[in-house]
Amino acid sequence: xxxxxxxxxxxSGHKLDIFFGTTPNLIKEATSGKPFDVxxxxxxxxxxxxxxxxxxxxxTVDIAxxxxxxxxRTGAPKPNISTPETFKAALLKAESVASIPESATGYSIAKVxxxxxxxxxxxxxxxxxPTPAQVVAVVAKGDAELALFLMxxxxxxxxxxxxxxxxxxxxxxxxxxxxxxxxxxxxxxKALVDYLKTPxxxxxxxxxxxxxx
Length: 213
Fold this sequence. Notes:
Blueprint: H1 4-12, H2 23-30, E1 38-42, H3 49-52, E2 61-66, E3 68-73, H4 84-93, E4 97-99, H5 104-116, H6 119-123, E5 126-128, H7 132-140, E6 146-150, H8 151-154, E7 159-164, E8 173-179, H9 186-195, H10 199-207, E9 211-212
Parallel strand pairs: 4-5, 4-6
Antiparallel strand pairs: 1-8, 2-8, 2-9, 3-6, 3-7
């Protein structure tokens, strides 16, 4: 959105005031009574009945999806995560793992731990972080050995991406858009959603390691 904001503002004449947050924070914001015009949120948020009631009725519009990945500090050894078995071994060997448990991504990672049968073992290893930026920072500083998060977030200086989760375990996070039920700027909100489906926006989305739609 940081890359798309100036492009949209220039072409549309509308100004964007963006609130970023994890899924629980977004649910809290949507249900707080504060006005908002449009949401571009993890699809899990739309499964919360209270949050969904604050968006216009009807289908939402999927904007992008991205899978989960693993990263280490730049220059650190990369574990083998090519199969579920080697991935499980790498997680159990790691001394510490950074992520955001209370988020759509965290819920997806918890499902993977459950499938691998390592939920209890991983509890002591997890270093919960409040924001994606902090997930990146603690690994870059060497305060955590691995980071588990969305691939687009992990592709930054200071980190070496080990790779995506094995295909059998991959959990895509889908970001979907909907107009706020109480918006007074419905046309502008729809213009943003439409813009996010344009070739220009799709190029930016792909460049950030995400898959459009």
